[in-house]
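Re: [help] complex structure
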Amino acid sequence: MHVLIIGAAGMIGRKLAARLSEAGELNGRPIEMLTLIDVVAPEKPARLADNIVTAAGDIGDPATAPSIVAERPDVIFHLAAIVSGEAERDFEKGNRVNLDGSRALLEAIRNTPGNYRPRLVFTSSIAVFGAPFPHAIADDFHLTPLTSYGTQKAIVELLLADYSRRGFVDGIGIRLPTISVRPGRPNQAASGFFSSIIREPLAGEETVLPVDESVMHWHASPRSAVGFLIHAAGLPADRLGPRVNLTMPGVCCTVAEQIAALRRMAGDRVAARIRRAPDPLVAQIVAGWPRRFDPQRALALGFKAESSFDEIIRVHIDDELGGNIAG
Amino acid sequence: MHVLIIGAAGMIGRKLAARLSEAGELNGRPIEMLTLIDVVAPEKPARLADNIVTAAGDIGDPATAPSIVAERPDVIFHLAAIVSGEAERDFEKGNRVNLDGSRALLEAIRNTPGNYRPRLVFTSSIAVFGAPFPHAIADDFHLTPLTSYGTQKAIVELLLADYSRRGFVDGIGIRLPTISVRPGRPNQAASGFFSSIIREPLAGEETVLPVDESVMHWHASPRSAVGFLIHAAGLPADRLGPRVNLTMPGVCCTVAEQIAALRRMAGDRVAARIRRAPDPLVAQIVAGWPRRFDPQRALALGFKAESSFDEIIRVHIDDELGGNIAG
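Output below.
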């Protein structure tokens, strides 16, 4: 089969490409071709390299979608997005890429002749939800995003469901939790501290916690995120039904519980590398974010996340640090 | 003030124009100018005629929105839409008018210079909801439309909320119930029987009921719909908050209760003009529609509908039949 990843140079896209190239198969069928697209051409994973095509392509350019869909990939992972902060700063760019780009992809699929109906896995986000929230957000809670990014994701969810209902595409949307622990350097995202309070201490570095330890959030590891994507690719449409957009499972915990897990995994000395420096702006942004879900449908459909934050830290140590901690 | 009605030739649009021209004011301020737009130029109501401008304009044409917004109306009622059945048959036309047309209007407002931030009242629909449903649909129930029309309305709701949150417009979306009793001739809408089983017997004509009498639905009169629009125009943004889209109140009743009300109002002889002729296709379509809401927010914000179907019939007799029934 032919698999296409749009947004393959991002953190999740790279891990997904690596996982697929190592497995050499998806949904039990061998991968004959793996196409990796991003605004800059992604790197090729080492394995299966002869079957991998990489190319630069901006999904926000109306010419991109028709050209990449012309090769009729069987499974398309659509991960490309302008991230939350940038979509908030640059309204037009966010709409052009996250909304118009995704719609162009759906239209390109619809307009491909000859009963073309690929499985399209769309990565949505828990940013489609906006406070105030109930104790736990059920699968039938309404989407009232408080960012343009969340609005764009929610709109694409609606389009995905309608295009799927009409038989133009075989779509599934998965709302990713906050991905912890993100590898790499600290970034400017308001959510960055959820990862950096674990990542930097484990790497022997100091880090700053800008919010109160009572802040609660919804996490899954990068490994789980890749697992969600692969599971979504293989889920039969008749099991999914018309409500094709699903909140993914995750771990609900407070910052205090994150730190306690770090202490259990790596000791007091590591946990002591977190410095408290309250930032009211970050605290205010985080207050509008969802904390806890009750993702019954995704669990019933076989999506699996970690069961504790200890496990999320273990995944980070294994996948990113070769099992080693800077003690 | 300057009031603009887009979709002013439709049933609700005409009634709204007539009500505004009779009142001569909106939100306590005199109407100096009333602009009525539709794909064919709407008729002028009799009163206030010197202050009324009518014009033909297709909101699905990208040039339309900028030209009608250029005159900086203070309040815009956006009622224009391709109806449900047509949007389902013609996917591209529905998207062009209902989605792109509404977005073009929002963009035209955003791009108008000089702190232009009109109140925009958008008519959404209970078609944003799709079965299965709980006993009563609460204000925080998710939108999972089962038609392209409902999808387009739900997307515009999201855009309206985001444009309002960002300060580009002062928007409010109201989800209208099924409007009963629609005046005029029977139409091809699957929902047509909800009105025709009342309207035709009252006019001395036979009519057909294609579904079981146990079918339950959510109704409000045309008079209430106009009342919702006018109330929405005057509702302060700070009372509305960021969740700018509201399900309107209505009357929940079964077809049997509709017929019982008709019998109470007009007698057995009138009610006997309804002939049962089950149509499985209509029954199947109707089964996906919402039946009952718990619209607490709209009620708390002062929106008012009828309290019984008897009252809805009374409104029809008063407003459309001059108080008379063909006995």
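Chain B has two domains: 2-177+220-247, 192-218+250-291+306-320.
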